[in-house]
Amino acid sequence: MGTMLAARYLGPNRIEPEEVELPEITDGWSLVEIEACGFCGSDINIVAGTHPRAKAPLTIGHELSGNIVKIAGDAHGLAIGDSVTCFPLITCGVCYACTHGNSQVCRQLKLYGFDAEGGMAQFVKLPTGSLLKLPKEMGAGIGALMEPLAVAVHGVNRVPLEGLEVAVVLGAGPIGLLTALVAQSRGIPHVLISDVQASRLELARELGLTPVAAGQALRDRVMELSNNNGADIVYECAGHPSTAKEMTVLARSRGIIINLSVFKKPAEVDLQQINFKEIEMFGSRCYERKDFETAIELAMKMPLEKIISDRMPLEEVSDAFKLFLTGEACKVLIVPHIKDARKHDANKNGASKNGHAAVERVQ
Ligand SMILES: [Zn+2]
Ligand SMILES: [Zn+2]
C-alpha cells in the first residue's frame, strides 16, 4: 500500500491535487500507470457542481492513456507493460438499450471519472476488459485522445455516407476537429468546418481541414458547393443555441443533421425547416467499443499532436483546469510524470468565451 497524487474534485469549483491511497486491485481488474489524461467539457460540469451524477470527492478523468503495471485474473490478451486506453462506460446490461445492442445509451449509463474514480491521477484501477491496447508507435499522450476520437467516429458512423458530397461541421473544438478529420478520412469530398473564433479556424487549417468563418461566409460557401441546395450532412459539434438554429439553415432538403455536442439546456430548433425539408436528425452521445478500435486505427494516420495545446503536471491541476476554462487552450492534458512538460507555445488555439466556439461535448 502506498499513496499517489490524484486530481480531485472536492466540491463546487474545487479541483485540486490530493494524495490518496493507491488503488488495490482484485480479480478482473488491472492497475494502470497514467501517461496522460485530458480534460473534457463534461469535467466543467463536474467541477461546477452541476453534473447530475458526479459527487465529491472524486478523481476525475475519462480520456486517458497509460501502461499496465498489474493484472489480477484474466488478462484479456493484455500484458504488463502494454500501453492502453480505457473504454470508460459502465452499463447495466439489463435495460432496453443494453439488451438491444446499444449499451452506449444505457438508461443507467455510468462512466469512470464521473461515477467511479477516474484516471487523472498517477494510477487508476480499471476492469481489464475495459482496456484497449495502443500501438507502440503511438506518440505519448495521443492515447488520451482516443476517447474523443471515438466520439467522432461514432458520430460519423451514425448514418451511411454513400453519395454525400458536402458536409459541414459546426464548432472547431476538439470534437468538431476530430469529427471533420474522420468525415474527411471517410472520403466525403467537401468537409467544411466553421467556428466563430479565428484561432480555431487556423488550427483546423493546420490539421488539413477546410475552415470557413461561421455565419454568412459559411452559408455562401455551402450554397456554392451544393448548387444552391445546401449541405448533405451537418455535424453539430458546438452545443451553442446559434448552431442549433444554423444547422437547419445549412442542411438541404432530405439532408441529415447529427448532433454530437451536449447542450447545457434545451435549445431552439426550427422544426418548420425540419418539416419543410424533411430533414433527418440523429443524436450521437458517446461510443461503442468498436468505435475505439476504429479510432486507434485512424489515429495513426491523423495529425493529432496538433490538437494537444498544453501538457501540465498533476501538481498544477487547478491551474490547468483554469486554463481549460478560459477557452484559450484546445486539448489540455495532465501528464503525471513529466513535471515540466508544458507546451504552452506550440499551439495557442483558443475557443471563444462566447459565441458558438467549441463547447466540448459531454457524456
Ligand atoms: Zn470526454
Ligand atoms: Zn443498461
Short summary:
Helices cover 25% and strands 27% of the residues. The protein is of the alpha/beta class and 363 residues long. The chain folds into 2 domains: 3-150 and 288-334, Quinone Oxidoreductase, Chain A, domain 1 (Alpha-Beta Complex); 152-283, NAD(P)-binding Rossmann-like Domain (Rossmann fold, 3-Layer(aba) Sandwich).
Task: Please describe what this structure looks like.
It is a single chain. The protein has ten helices and 18 strands. With 363 residues, it is of the alpha/beta class. It has two domains: 3-150 and 288-334, Medium-chain alcohol dehydrogenases, catalytic domain (Quinone Oxidoreductase, Chain A, domain 1), CATH 3.90.180.10; 152-283, NAD(P)-binding Rossmann-like Domain (Rossmann fold). Mean pLDDT is 93; it is low at 340-363. Bound molecules: zinc ion (2 copies). The site of one zinc ion has 10 residues, from helix 2.
Report the portion of residues in β strands.
25-35%
Shape: globular
What is the CATH topology descriptor of the largest domain?
Quinone Oxidoreductase, Chain A, domain 1
Rg from C-alpha positions? 20 Å
CATH architecture of the largest domain: Alpha-Beta Complex
Low-confidence stretches: 340-363
Reading off the top of the CATH hierarchy, the class of the largest domain is best stated as Alpha Beta
Instruction: Round the mean pLDDT to the nearest integer and report it.
Output: 93
Question: Which molecules are bound in this entry?
Answer: zinc ion
Looking at this structure, what is the CATH superfamily of the largest domain?
Medium-chain alcohol dehydrogenases, catalytic domain
| Number of discrete helical segments | 10
User: Could you give the distance between the termini?
Assistant: 33 Å
Number of strands: 18
Main sheet specs = 7 strands, mixed
Spell the H/E element sequence: EEEHEEEEHEEEHEHEHEHEHEHEHEHE
What is the assembly state of the chains in this entry? single chain
Helix percentage: 25-40%
Helix and strand content put the structural class at alpha/beta
| Total separate domains | 2
